[in-house]
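tool_call predict_complex ligand=pyridoxal-5'-phosphate
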Amino acid sequence: MFVSDSLSVNSRGHLTIGGADVVSLAEKYGTPLYIMDEDKIRRTCRAYTSALKQCYGDSHTVFYASKAFSAKYIYKIIAEEGLGADVVSGGELYTAIKAGFPADRIHFHGNNKTSAEIELAIKYGIGQFVVDNDEELNLINEIAKRENIVADISFRVKPGIDAHTHDFVKTGQIDSKFGVALENGEAFEIVKKAISLPNIRLCGVHCHIGSQIFDIEPFAHAAEVMMAFVAKIKNELSYEICELNLGGGFGVRYTEADDPKSIFDAVKNFTDAVKREAEKFGVKLPHISIEPGRSIVAEAGITVYAVGAVKEIKGIRTYISVDGGMTDNPRYALYGSEYTMLLPERALAEKTECVTVAGRNCESGDLLGENISLPKAQPGDLLAVLTTGAYNYSMASNYNRVPRPPVVMVNNGEDKLVVKRETYEDIIANDIM
Ligand SMILES: *Cc1c(COP(=O)(O)O)cnc(C)c1O
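tool_result ok
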């Protein structure tokens, strides 16, 4: 009935998430409010690990790409579910470590890691650097030498695949700021160099072709291209690449029009491709890693707002303003992302209106959506935006000095606060003069 199986309606006609009444949670914690279904997150983790086990055996790791939603509590869930974690900054790394996440299950990504971040990662003993470029390879080798260790790395490779998704979240093509390109020989040269560096151990090759991809073929295609590269390295450099990381990017449902394939189908498709290509090229089956971010948390989350002003501009449009906006969800402003919305106090009410939902920030572009179907809303109503578990809290800002909303986790009807609401004191905490 809804875009996520976390959501339902109770006997009072209220929206529920993970078995908890959304209206009661809004009363208890205030608005705006992020709510996430912990059980849904755990189920999704298990869907990935069990599909990989069934299709490929034990030689696999699922890394949660934690930029999708990063706070101490999620690293605890992910650790308990046996996944690894990707981080892309010192801040994400620090959060994971402070949450007790095992350092050896952390991979460090990013296209411009600083010396300070590399030093911190080495100090914590992370599992692997996913190296983006030549500059960074030299830097890691140098720091590792100084620290007297050998750093495990893999390379972020641009496989030259055009996944059909938004330009801003497309990353596999040659014109991308991420990684080294295959087609011009850049990737091969850097691999050759890495093998010769004394404080570097090359473990794997990595690609990530984009985000919110519904088609499963591009992942299998990426697997083929990467396995050919593994074979070339073996044949020409006599070096065995043990790990193949196919990145994340699996699509989720924001609206009824979104139709992602099942996790099992996607996993089956690319693992079959890896097995086929390994046999064709006579290389050993690599350890397979994937890095889902959005698909682990997106559908598990919603955001609840209170409706304020309702502005009907005759013959033009109706603006419904809520008490949040681009500060807690910049995705419409950034990408024009579509969402499903409803009124949680009347979750099944017929959607008779077509409105623009606006935020409370001082930007005309501060919208959460246009042409949104909703029942007739009035000031004081609650409004829920669905599928906000990924790239919402993690992209939130304090623009206009708006405090960030809290995050509540629900698990089988029980709620707990995992990130508290920022206060005005938090807002001025770093203003030292
Ligand atoms: C962002 C990112 C991911 C996760 O992408 P999703 O679309 O959220 O699944 C995985 N790997 C890398 C390298 C990324 O940059």
